[in-house]
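Blinded run. Sample ID left blank on purpose so nobody reads anything into the name before looking at the predicted structure. Input follows.
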Amino acid sequence: MDAIAVMTASTTPLPTLSITEEMLEPLIQGVIANVTVILPIGLGLMAIFLGIRIIPGLISRFTRM
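Blinded prediction complete.
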């Protein structure tokens, strides 16, 4: 137990890290680039799945009339 107490004691200060806008800029640009690619693909897939679900019901409804 004493070894853990020594390691977590405040006698060894942790290094501080300041995050700047310049450090976050590549991350933000990467997220924006990925969203601009994934969003249209996701919407297209959702439209296909919705069409597969709805169109057979519409066809059967109109053929019964």
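Unblinding after everyone has recorded impressions. Residues 17-64 form one domain.
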